[in-house]
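Journal club prep — side note

Before the paper discussion, L.F. wants everyone to see what a predicted structure for a comparable chain looks like in token form. Sequence:
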Amino acid sequence: MKQKTVHEGEARTLRVAGMSCASCVAHVERALGKVEGVRSASVNLATETATVSVAPEVPFEALAEAVRKAGYEVQRDQVALDIEGMSCAACVGRVEKVLKRVPGVLDASVNLAARRARVETSGAVPLAALVEAVGKAGFGARAAGEVGEAARAATAAAEERSLRHAVWFAAALTAPVVALEMGSHFIPGVHDWVMMTLGQRESWWLQFLLTTLVLFGPGLRFFRKGLPALARGAPDMNALVAIGTGAAWLYSVVATFAPGLLPAGTVHVYYEAAAVIVTLILVGRLLEARARGRTSEAIQRLMRIQPRTARVWRDGEFRELPVEEVVVGDVIQVRPGEKVAVDGEVVEGASFVDESMITGEPVPAEKTLGSAVVGGTLNTRGAFSFRATKVGADTVLAQIIRMVETAQGAKLPIQALVDKVTMVFVPIVMAVAVLTFGVWFAFGPEPALTFALVNAVAVLIVACPCAMGLATPTSIMVATGRAAAMGVLFRQGEALQRLRDADVVALDKTGTLTVGRPELTDLITAEGFARDEVLALVAAVESRSEHPIGQAIVAAARAAGLALGEAQGFEATAGHGVRAQVAGRRVEIGADRLMTRLGLDVGVFAAQAEQLGDEGKSPLYAAIDGRLAAIIAVADPLKPTSVAAVRALHAMGLRVAMVTGDNARTAHAIARQAGIDEVVAEVLPDGKVEAVKGLRRDGRRVAFVGDGINDAPALAESEVGIAIGTGTDVAIESADVVLMSGDLAGVPRAIALSRATMRNIVQNLFWAFAYNTALIPLAAGVFWPATGLLLSPIFAAAAMSLSSVFVLGNALRLRRFGVAAADAAVDGGAPASIRAARA
């Protein structure tokens, strides 16, 4: 094995897949060595790792691309961490920065609302190294897998309970302070009463005692987190509150116990400001905690879907066992009104199962022998037994939960600007506060020191990085959870933004736009023949055939409840058709060529044949006892909701294209029925990627909808890949969005939700930035010379708390986005439905 010495530089470890020999090692080392900025590379075949000494500015993607071009792949892993102690966007930026510095970490994304970090790594990165890095930044961290959703919910409830107690304690102590200080100013007679009963000095002593209990009781959390963050040079919102309230309290303490140290005319106390600020911010935190709990309800609801026990066949009888003890192959009994424990296949009995919690479809699905059932769904009536095929983390429900968690932790491209601003926001606010103090102290009216202190504190308190940090993640969490309840799964959170920007929706035909299997669509009989009679005879012959068209005819006959006779002397002639004797009658089925050979004139069905051809159907004919009996058409029909879904997409201002391997005539016929704008026909299985590229002309962005293995490359190539959940696993893995039901109506639903979510995010960001842009100058006294307006620190605290609550409340509106609002578009594309989708 070839080795190179790793010289000075930043060492990065990559996991490389696909190497099998020393020659592979040399190829990878040579490829990495050619990347500009790489000083040396050493590849270990046994551990499948490459250690690269590289300049810090060289991006990981440059190394990964070099390995890819050499014919190998760089493997990536994801680690999820629960982060404790974050309170604002500055905290998010700090945690991301320290995680990205850990060797082997490629990227880190932190979600303030979920309090979750997702870390992408290549190479062995110890969990302890990640936890230690976060700890040094002043926050707590632990692997997300160590804590169950129930434990998280309990922790959140305990936090909310603690905040509620803190609010009541702080409010009880703050009320007398406000009454003593502010009551003297606003209520006639209170000042005289205080002076006569307590005296000013005693009143200040009492305010000192009560405010100190508030600041260093419930308010101690701000100092414990804010001051260490300030000492590390990474101040956050806690630091702003600690400095602001601490300055007001300290100034008041000097005025109370050492008034001689202050200039004449400046001996005032601001205990009420410090106490009220802490109380109001605690109230804001409490409201925020409650709202944040509601944003994660979707995950909790999904977790509650799965039953805790199952009736499992063990040792000759059905036993009630914990669902964790169920293994693949177990036979499980489900009685009426019970939930299906895990995924499986029905082996006995029949029933109707409510799958709305998984697919979003309200109509219960019939389950018979061989039908697949999904864990968490509800058996409505009838009893059945099924064999477990997937348990634990492999079930559909577990995969849905993982998808939702991943999407909720994602960062949208729109968040990039926010991240840049929030990284410097708190230091800028502190600088503005210092500048405010200096300007007012130097140029303000008397008492200048008082004005300088009050306005500087107002600047520190009114600034709200929380609102900026919560603006995007809360909307994503609520939207992805709501989507899951509607049967739409966003595997990638970024798809929420990209789907909003789509210009063209490209649909695969077979299995996506159509049912995906041939069905008998037309059977028109000649004079003297009854439809059921002809169908029963033709189906009896076709029951001997393995052709899909024949199977479709047989299925139609059985669905009609017809008895099929025994076909004797069955013959099949390639390119012509089939024949057999049924109950003594000669039956022949085939193309017009066969009828001509039999001497029969198909001209009697000329009009019907032409119409079927226009609809993209190839007609067949049936002859019974030497007489032309019927014209038959078997086709892959459109799904019942496809036409309405296309109409809804049009009403949303989107163009709809169809990509298919069918011949142009059939494709255009289907397109006419569905109302599709563009058709790309006769596409080879590997040509769908080129079809997507072609639809991108003029800069258009494409969302591709498919269900098959051959759709996977196109799903990956398009801006947004949408997979039908009833399709193949390969297609689903390649997609950004998964529609759990086979209903194409999910596409306009997903787009409507995407648009509503992005509009919600823009509203939140506008509020967060506009709030800070407007109120920080007001707090600094910029408008005082012209209008005489100043912002009290107390009102600043109230505004800051309400800012975060507004953002969370606005995001929670998305919980009301219902299937009905999106489905109105699918039901007819009426203007009202589109207004609902865009609301």
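L.F.'s comment for the group: Confidence is low (pLDDT under 50) at residues 1-7, 825-839. Keep this in mind when we get to the figures.
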